Amino acid sequence: MRRLHQTSDAGPASDADDPAATPFDRGYLTDGKALFHIERTLVASPHGELLVELEDCGTLDLIVCSARAVAELGMRPVQPLARIAAARARAA
Length: 92
Fold this sequence. Notes:
Blueprint lengths: L27 E3 L4 E10 L4 E8 L5 E5 H6 L3 E3 L2 H11 L1
Antiparallel strand pairs: 1-2, 1-5, 2-3, 3-4
């Protein structure tokens, strides 16, 4: 399994007032080998860089990395089967 780049400057940033972070929270990502749960997104000050806190579903380790690192690793969103089935039922 590839290890995501960890950052140590996550600090006490809060995403509670950031509506742009909300759509990403609580979803799942995969690189095709491992599954990660998106715990929350943070905006690191003073640079304004978007950070993502991920939980490795296999080890339960929490990992904080930049959104850029997530994109560079080719991570893609995973939709739960129940959501896919509901979308198909609405389309029928």
